[in-house]
Task: structure prediction
Amino acid sequence: MGNKKEEILPDREFALDLLRSLKIQHSVRRHSEKVADKALDIAKKITKVKVDLNLIEIGALLHDIGRTKTHGFKHALIGSKILRERGFSDKLSKICERHILGGLDKIDAKRFGLPEKDYLPITLEEKIICLADKHMAGTREVTIHERFNRWFQKYGRSKILLKSKRRIEEIQKEIERLM
Ligand SMILES: [Fe+2]
Result:
């Protein structure tokens, strides 16, 4: 164990240096730091099961690393690839891949032109980061309701957004039950 690929997790400084070396936008870095703070806040309230705080912190810091290449939904896939290629834990690349909206299923993925498969947060750490990300509009903390209302105003109450809101509310409830 210890040195196996699935175990490799950079520390905070390494993660921030990596973002800098890929020339991440200042606003994206600030957002990622806020998502990390929020995700840790949520995680520390969980009492009923064990949560990997280290993975949450680093995963949140790197969840938008793909935005160094594109701001479209593909940033999740690209971010996942960047982390995989650098030999980091598969847990980190999955966090990246599964943080869009409340997760995307195969049908959503197809509609957005992504390779057809599910991108749904499965592990608790993935769910916590996905939820924390929805709570941070840039660096401003918002409720899930506010977050989705802004998207509804911008894109309309599309099926995909409504489905996504239900998904993230489910995730929120599941996490609250563990507190
Ligand atoms: Fe993102």
User: Anything to note?
Assistant: The pocket of fe (ii) ion is lined by residues 63-64, 75, 99 (CB under 6 Å). Residues 5-177 form a domain with the Hypothetical protein af1432 fold (CATH 1.10.3210). DSSP finds nine helices and two strands in the chain. The first strand starts at residue 136 and ends at 137.
